[in-house]
Hints:
The protein is built from 9 helices and no strands. By secondary structure, it is mainly alpha-helical. α3 (about 25-30) runs parallel beside α7 (about 90-115), α7 (about 90-115) runs parallel beside α9 (about 135-150) and α8 (about 120-135) runs antiparallel to α9. It has one domain (about 1-150). The chain is globular, with a radius of gyration of 18 Å. It has helices at about 1-10, 10-20, 25-30, 35-40, 45-65, 80-85, 90-115, 120-135, 135-150.
Amino acid sequence: MIDQISTFFSYSMIYLWLTIGVLPFWFLMLFFPQSRICKIFVTSIFPILILAGVDLYLILQMYNNGINLLGSFNLYLGLNELLLLFSDENYVLLFWIHFLAINLFCGSWITRDYQKIAMPKFFAFISIISAYFVGPFGLLFYWFIRIFFSKKIDLYD
Length: 157
């Protein structure tokens, strides 16, 4: 049975499921941010646990396939090493999961925070959309908008 699961979950299939699978979370954040289902499934640890589970599965698959995981630390030696690492679809998929997780975390933090300071939904909507495409920039954009609504600058909140 495990062989059937690993055969079904090829790297292309995992990429497809992940890319489509995060869309409901973003849909809930954008259109139903105050719903109970959004609080349970989106702004909690739930989506990060799913992505971490897939991440662990991929790392175990890489280990079982004999890929040198310690060799991945060569990416810190220069841009050419990073490009060489990205020539392997295993690492590209791992980085894609990290990208999705960070952007989802940024979006869920924005969703929780704008409700806390009673910001109009329109401004948060723009910030959440930008966090979907370019996570940290969306967070920075939100922080600039947040300054005007909270009437203070918090560098540590």
